[in-house]
Amino acid sequence: MSVQTWSPWREATSVGQVSGLTVRIAYGPHLVSSVAMANDLPPLTPGTLYLVATPIGNLEDITLRALRVLRGADVIAAEDTRHTGNLLRHFSIQKPLISYFKFNEARRGEEILDRLRQGQIVALVTDAGTPGISDPGQRVVASAVRAELRVEAIPGACALIAALTASGLPTDEFHFAGFLPVKSGQRSRRLAELVRLPGTIVLYESPYRVEKLVTELAVLSPDRPLVLARELTKKFEELLRGRPADVIAEWKRKARKGEFVVLIGPNADDSSNFGNPQAGTHTADNPLEPKPDLPPAP
Ligand code: SAM
Fold first, then answer.
1. Confidence of residue 176 (pLDDT cuts 50, 70, 90)
2. How buried is residue 295: exposed, middle or buried, by Cβ count under 10 Å (0-12/13-18/19+)?
3. Residue 201 lies in a domain
4. What is the number of domains present in the chain?
């Protein structure tokens, strides 16, 4: 087994490759600022698979490093090339795109490995958030690691972390279980297993099944605090907090749509503030969601 230890900063200094860079930060159609980057940014490393996190709604949530890697990559492997094409256009990035999604992972994974062996820089992105988190990525990363090829994460938006940190539920121990199985037998078995775990449980759930999930929780663990984190970073962001029965009552008053992270807190004495559903809505300050056909940034 080989252990990779590598510091981009050390490598850049030792090979003396430094370059200045000015990054233009575009907010929607308006160019707001130019940031002159320090002169000692490391170059991208040939033969590396970069896992680039992209926004989960608000386009401001892309990092400077993500933009630099996307600009510097030889090719971008995307879950949906059309979707990523819109994102790239918004940031005025033009790069060859190849598709990498659930059903071509094996074949495309081999192609990505070949490119890495040839010394190419490959950036992997998904439609939103962090690659490999309930999204394609883990398989090609495992293959690259087995083949002793370099893999580097470019961290950024991730719905589970945004939801967990804003939920008010304990963050010191949490279990992320992605999506529950769809088939009802498997689903209730899995849920029963999960609610036995200590700490906060974090799930992704389709908007069509959230109400069902909350109803199941009202039976399975009626006293545990629940948070529905909806449309994070977007115009209609909302955090609904309460016991399952309270959340159902609120849902019956007004059904919700959009993307959801479901968080189930532990049975804790200090969760009394979760007695009533509270919604924090933001309607005006998140203007930068991706639109299907965004005009390019100037
Ligand atoms: N890789 C992504 C990440 O890093 O969060 C997750 C991709 S997974 C296919 C999509 C699920 O993530 C959605 O069904 C929803 O549960 C959650 N999600 C993504 N964006 C979200 C948002 N803006 N607000 C709430 N949940 C979101």
1. very high
2. exposed
3. yes
4. 3
Tens of pLDDT, residue by residue over 24-50, are 444 333 333 344 455 678 899 999 999
Asked whether 232 lines ligand 1 (CB < 6 A), one says yes
Q: What's the CA angle centered on 274, arms 269 and 276, to 5 degrees? A: 140
Question: Which spans in 134-182 are helix H?
Answer: 138-146, 159-167
- Separation of CA 4 from chain center: 25
CA of 232 to the centre of ligand 1 (A): 9
pTM > 0.85: yes or no: no
288 within a domain of the structure (yes/no) = no
Measured CA to CA, the distance from residue 297 to residue 132 in angstroms comes to 28
d(CA 257, CA 204): 14
119-165 pLDDT, tens digit per residue, is 999 999 999 999 999 999 999 999 999 999 999 999 999 999 999 99
133 lines ligand 1 (CB under 6 A): yes
